[in-house]
Amino acid sequence: MARGMRTFEYAVVGPGGRPVTGRVEASDETAVAARLRELGLVPTAIDEVHSTGMKREITLGGRGKVKNKEVAMVVRQLATMVRAGLALPRALRVLVDQSDNPALGEILKDLAAEVEGGAALGAAMESHVGVFPPVTRSLVAAGEVGGFLDQALASAAAGMESELKLRRTIKGAMIYPVAVLGIAVLAAVVMLLFIVPVFQGIFEGLDTDLPWATQILVDLSGVLKVIGIPLVALIALGVWWWRRHRRDTAVREKVEPRLLRAPVVGPLLSKLAVARFTRNLSTMTSCGVALAQALEVVGPTSGNIVVERAAAAAGESVREGETLADGLERTHVMPSLVVQMVAVGEDSGDIVGMLRHVSDFYDDEVSAGTEALTSAMEPVLLVVIGGVVGSMLLALYLPILTVTSSM
Fold it and tell me: For residue 285, which of 363, 366, 346, 365 has the smallest C-alpha distance?
């Protein structure tokens, strides 16, 4: 917001006599009223909105309150209604009435108010960048300019649905290993905090030196009692910091390239980034978005700064007159399969189809790789858990067994 500007919520009489509300930034109420009159609207109420509490969260895009699947469903429904011939403002109002999520309903209400006030839907979506993905916003803007808004909305919905499907596959496959690992850590902590101290009292009554394994277990129990709460606080602080700063460029530059080089998970993350890149690029080019512009938009959607910069470099090459295949090959980031398929698509005039085939291939590769990784982890985790718990129990009973055998 510009210096000296404040946010005001206004109400005007819309089509059919229905009240229409919206928000605008201005220096004072007089400026808001003047701007509305320039648009041919008669304000019935103008109130200042203070950027705190719930209203601030909604203005910032309902962060943490609107789920991606809800946004995908709204875009899909909007595409269906626009294709059926329903006017865009009316379609948005229908979605407002049908929304079960208050935060999403407020966002749709803001979109409807801006569209009824003469704004383009793509421009209105720019006020909610935390809700609508960049590909969706760009597709909608291109669809409005080119006169194919219904197709653009349908393509955007299809892209979001594919992304959600892939995420569900990955999360579903990771539930079991994460749960097992969590149970193992919890079991070890419970033993160290509650069971080992009981045995420690027994050990003090034994007139013998503790075996080294038992002594290590007793020492770990004592250390955990002292640093347990600070350690939990430190972990919580680390999680908070990561959630707050993981999107910072400096953090991404250090973390994301190393993730791609990591063993086992590195190739999987690389395939995931390529799948997102090619899928979103095929979606945008199928709607007539210029290739250089599409590359600029889809790069950040890959989720990895290495692929993002490769897309930006390829976009510069395309602007200079080179082919997309040559631009991607020069980055030395994209797999040779992607470069070859793009080259074939450019030669045959079906680059959209080739990009779609590549994205489908890598989607399947990510799904299969995730399932294979989790299947391999299951027996390893079971062995590790059994080994840890068994070793701890053996270390606890070893002094008692030693005393008993000596008697």
Answer: 346
Q: Residue 331 sits in a domain of what CATH number?
A: 1.20.81.30
When pLDDT is averaged across residues 110-138 and rounded to a whole number, the result is 85
**Is there a domain that residue 1 lies in?**
no
Mean pLDDT value of segment 302-329: 91
Same domain, 338 and 358: yes
Tell me, what's the pLDDT at 163? Answer: 85
Q: Is residue 62 part of a domain?
A: no
Q: What is the DSSP letter of 54?
A: H
pLDDT at 98: 83
pLDDT for the residue numbered 323:
92
Give me the helix-helix angle, 265-286 and 134-146, nearest 10°: 10
d(CA 216, CA 231) in angstroms, rounded, equals 19
- The 10s digit of each residue's pLDDT in 229-269 is 899 999 999 999 998 888 888 998 999 999 888 888 889 88
Torsion of CA 222, 223, 224, 229, to 10 degrees: 120
15 with 88, same domain: the answer is no
Please check whether residues 168 and 145 belong to one and the same domain.
Answer: no
d(CA 241, CA 407): 57
CB neighbour list of residue 390: distance below 8 Å, 6 or more residues apart: none
In what order do the strands lie in the sheet containing 43-49?
19-26, 6-13, 43-49
Question: What would the mean pLDDT of 290-300 be, rounded to a whole number?
Answer: 86
For residue 352, which of 270, 294, 301 has the smallest C-alpha distance?
A: 294
Strands 19-26 and 43-49 turn out to be: unpaired
Domain enclosing residue 353, as ranges:
161-407
Contact call for residues 369 and 352 (beta carbons, < 8 A): no
Q: Kindly list the distances between the CA atom of residue 218 and the CA atoms of 98, 200, 253, 390, in Å, as whole numbers in the listed order.
A: 60, 7, 42, 16
Angle, helix 305-319 to helix 324-331, in steps of 10 degrees: 140
Residues 306, 238 share a domain:
yes
Total count of domains within the chain = 3
More confident residue, 50 or 103: 103
The rounded distance, in Å, linking the Cα atoms of 103 and 325 is 43
Q: How many residues does the chain have?
A: 407
Say whether 148 sits in a helix, a strand or coil: coil
| Model confidence pTM above 0.90 | no
Q: Are 118 and 109 in contact (CB under 8 A)?
A: no
